[in-house]
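> call design_seq(struct)
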């Protein structure tokens, strides 16, 4: 049992303003495994004040990028050394299979941190340009105090997409973990202290939606960075629009995997294990619409059903597990509700369904529906669980039309024997990323969504821009 009765504010373990607590429940055992304070608006006031003071008067924004990179390098080294502890903790609190956690919940966040620490050396922080009346210095300045709000599915990754660029830019941060997965923030806060970040540069206040909404509108905040549902993203975007406060929004998805006529089916099906079902299907970029040519539909259906029905479902801490429990009971109910909707809509259940694989824990059976039309709710709405829909297409133009007939535009993939042709097809898919014969997020390439999947980009040099203000300093040509 991990009990925390303090909040990390201003570099100190601070007594919270309220008495409310959040219980963290293991999705596998359904037992309470941790407890943290439930942050209140008064705690947000204290955290924003600390971040404000660190930004307005502290050393962090005044250090050079190279000096900040050195501190972040220390944090990255601590992270790299102890990432197994982070992976174990995230698996315990939200049920991610340990093999996925080691990569997605620990190694990848550390790589993102190291990427931005390294980027400081090559990024253009200042440049000189010829102007109409003389030279102009164009400089990049940190945007200020950042509110970082993130979800439970990949908490360290979605946090680090914001924290690492914000910190290298010279911003200070108030981070709000979700109530389902607040424990990893405590481990990171210890490492932040150990690495010697100045007080107030990073602050954590776990809390629910209302306190999150309070943070978004706080007058001391200069920028909001959010990952979560499209519904919450709309509310946050609306609030930021009213306040003219810049916001980056990484939202939901319903991505398509296009299986081409010439695809190697063994490679494809093995690739979809990760691309479609990573993190128990609780991934925004999961490719849950599988598009197969009519000529190969039955073959694809058989192979997909065989793969999904053969997945090992169980204790996420077990190294043999491929699918663990859903992170929350309400998530289990939501996924099961979509399975019911699929059956009511007349889709054909190939494997899975409503029989739970285990009585204890928030498990759902990995499920595949065939004979799905792209107009069905199970093809249009984000389920956020291990439920795949198989949609037939006539020719490649039809496949592209179906892939793009979505309110979302986050990820996707093309599976083909001809990689160049795959790249041509990927260019026609209206999403922020589309892999060919694989799907992966690289720290040095941008990630984000078209349409209802969000606004702005994270990762890569593009992911640093939202944390910078650009300033032009023109002056007369020297005599
Ligand atoms: P959610 O939107 O309910 O919550 C996300 C976070 O925002 C939580 O910390 C929550 O407390 C907070 N929050 C919710 N409403 C808020 C509001 N009005 N103001 C301020 N804060 C608010 O999402 P969830 O159910 O926790 O996470 C799942 C969703 O996240 C899925 O839709 C998934 O696609 C999305 N997601 C997107 C990405 C991406 O990069 N595009 C990555 C991971 C998850």
């Amino acid at each position: 049992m991990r009990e925390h009765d303090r909040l990390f504010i201003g570099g100190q373990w601070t007594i919270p303003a309220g008495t409310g607590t959040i219980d963290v429940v293991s999705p596998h055992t359904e037992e309470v495994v941790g407890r943290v304070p439930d942050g209140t608006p008064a705690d947000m006031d204290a955290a924003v004040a600390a971040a404000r003071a660190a930004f307005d008067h502290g050393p962090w924004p005044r250090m050079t990028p190279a000096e900040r990179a050195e501190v972040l390098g220390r944090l990255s080294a601590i992270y790299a050394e102890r990432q197994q502890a982070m992976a174990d903790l995230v698996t315990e609190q939200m049920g991610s299979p340990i093999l996925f956690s080691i990569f997605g919940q620990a190694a990848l966040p550390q790589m993102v941190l190291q990427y931005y620490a390294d980027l400081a050396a090559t990024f253009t922080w200042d440049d000189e340009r010829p102007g109409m009346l003389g030279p102009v210095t164009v400089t990049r300045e940190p945007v200020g105090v950042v509110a970082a709000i993130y979800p439970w599915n990949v908490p360290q990754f979605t946090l680090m997409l914001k924290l690492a660029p914000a910190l290298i830019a010279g911003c200070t941060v108030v981070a709000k973990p979700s109530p389902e997965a607040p424990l990893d923030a405590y481990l990171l806060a210890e490492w932040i202290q150990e690495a010697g970040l100045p007080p107030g540069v990073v602050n954590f206040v776990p809390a629910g939606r209302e306190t999150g909404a309070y943070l978004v509108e706080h007058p001391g905040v200069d920028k909001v960075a959010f990952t979560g549902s499209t519904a919450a993203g709309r509310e946050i975007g609306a609030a930021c629009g009213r306040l003219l406060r810049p916001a980056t929004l990484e939202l939901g998805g319903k991505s398509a995997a296009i299986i081409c006529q010439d695809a190697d089916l063994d490679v494809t099906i093995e690739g979809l294990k990760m691309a479609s079902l990573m993190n128990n299907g609780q991934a925004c970029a999961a490719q849950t619409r599988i598009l197969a040519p009519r000529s190969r539909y039955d073959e694809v259906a058989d192979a997909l059903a065989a793969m999904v029905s053969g997945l090992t479902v169980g204790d996420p801490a077990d190294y043999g597990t491929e699918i663990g429990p859903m992170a929350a009971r309400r998530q289990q109910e939501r996924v099961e509700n979509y399975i019911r909707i699929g059956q009511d809509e007349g889709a054909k259940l190939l494997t899975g369904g409503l029989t739970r694989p285990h009585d204890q824990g928030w498990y759902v059976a990995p499920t595949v529906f065939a004979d799905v039309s792209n107009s069905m709710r199970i093809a249009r709405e984000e389920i956020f669980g291990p439920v795949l829909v198989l949609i037939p297409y006539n020719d490649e133009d039809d496949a592209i039309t179906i892939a793009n007939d979505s309110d979302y535009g986050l990820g996707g993939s093309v599976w083909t024997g001809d990689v160049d042709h795959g790249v041509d097809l990927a260019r026609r898919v209206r999403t922020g990323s589309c892999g060919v014969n694989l799907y992966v997020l690289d720290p040095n390439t941008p990630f984000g969504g078209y349409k209802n999947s969000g606004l702005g980009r994270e990762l890569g040099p593009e992911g640093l821009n939202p944390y910078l203000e650009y300033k032009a300093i023109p002056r007369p040509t020297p005599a």
